[in-house]
Write a structure and sequence with these properties.
The chain has about 325 residues and is an alpha/beta fold. The chain folds into two domains: about 170 residues, Periplasmic binding protein-like II (D-Maltodextrin-Binding Protein, domain 2), CATH 3.40.190.10; about 140 residues, 3-Layer(aba) Sandwich (D-Maltodextrin-Binding Protein, domain 2). Helices cover about 35% and strands about 20% of the residues. It has a five-stranded mixed β-sheet with strand order 4-3-5-15-6. Strands 10-9-11-7-12 form a five-stranded mixed β-sheet. β3, α1 and β4 form a beta-alpha-beta unit. The protein is elongated. The N terminus is likely disordered.
Length: about 325
């Protein structure tokens, strides 16, 4: 499939809702996409077939802008298909997905065993597709003046034992400023929270709770940018969009300070905070609803354009082929 025309600077998060139905009212609280997906012009595939109906996606706030960008580009070809994209967090997304309320679940971590068991009990079969790579980014307010932190220092700040005790930057390192720590991070339904606590604190879900939590990454961006002593963490694309008001901290996991970037995430040097990003597709929705299959096919066929438009880190050639091969098993 030939890639769509893409304005590579205009697909910003603030503009996406103009073409994509992002509100819950378009179906995230109902049962998945419209089972009455109409087709005309009978020719199968891409833009040669006119479709209608709805597609419901929810889940990771990190992946939401990517799926929203895919939806905006897709609606240039299929304007009668309404794609609703929510951002309840990875955990909240899987809860809705396994209850049959959505067709696609955006995820910043793989599905967990207990979630998979719920899907299995409900008869929800699914396919996991990797769609991008992320460099989970630790940021600070620029006035802090710190450039690099070690993974041990991150644990010192964010582990449960730090609650109410580690409250100043200079408690972490004497060379850091005498400045109150103001922490901002994702809520417990977030896959970013799960991933960060696992690789930094050594146990998924183990974290201090005395921080400003939100499933909306834009809230975290604003909090760090506008709070003296602010620190937070979220997906790399949210940092890129706000780089003029944030400092991305380099991370030293034992081999020296490494900045988050597309290159360091792809080459493995940004460890342990480089991670895969996924969508999960309900197999029955894909098989029974042509608009769902069409959207998913478009998303994966045009993945390079979608990731560039949404300013995400693209898959390498091997990962791209693996995702395409996995999708082909559904087709």
């Amino acid at each position: 499939m030939e890639g769509p025309d893409v304005n590579r600077t205009s697909l910003r998060r603030a503009a996406l809702p103009s073409l994509v139905a992002l509100t819950v009212g378009l179906g995230l609280s109902a049962c998945g996409g419209d089972s009455e997906g109409d087709t005309t012009n009978g020719t199968e595939g891409g833009g040669s077939e006119t479709l209608s109906g709805s597609v419901a996606a929810d889940g990771s706030s990190t992946v939401e802008p990517l799926t929203s960008a895919a939806a905006e580009l897709y609606q240039e070809e299929q304007p009668d298909v309404q794609v609703a994209v929510g951002s309840a967090g990875t955990g909240g997304g899987f809860e809705a997905f396994c209850a049959g309320k959505t067709d696609i679940s955006n995820a910043s971590r793989p599905i967990e065993d207990d979630e998979a068991k719920i899907c299995d009990k409900a008869g929800i079969e699914y396919t996991e597709l990797q769609v991008a790579t992320d460099a989970l980014t630790v940021v600070s307010n620029p006035e802090v003046g710190v450039e690099c932190v070690t993974t041990e220092q991150l644990k010192m700040i964010w582990e449960p034992a730090a609650e109410g005790k580690i409250t100043n930057w200079n408690q972490v390192d004497p060379s850091f400023p005498d400045l109150d720590l103001a922490l901002f991070g994702p809520g417990t339904d977030s896959g970013t929270f799960d991933y960060f606590t696992d690789v930094i604190n050594g146990e998924e879900g183990a974290s201090r709770s005395d921080y400003e939590a939100s499933e909306d990454d834009n809230v975290l961006v604003d909090g760090v940018a506008n709070t003296e002593g602010g620190m937070g963490y979220f997906g790399f694309s949210f940092y890129e969009e706000n780089a003029d008001s944030l400092t991305a901290l380099q991370v030293d996991s034992g081999g020296g300070c490494v900045e988050p970037s597309a290159e360091t995430a792809a080459d493995g040097s940004y460890t342990p905070l480089a991670r895969p990003l996924f969508i999960y597709v309900a197999n029955k929705a894909y098989a029974d609803q042509p608009q769902v299959a069409s959207f998913v096919d478009f998303y994966i066929d045009n993945l390079a354009d979608v990731t560039e438009a949404a300013q995400f880190i693209p898959l390498n050639d091997e990962q791209t082929q693996e995702t395409a091969d996995t999708l082909s098993q559904l087709q």
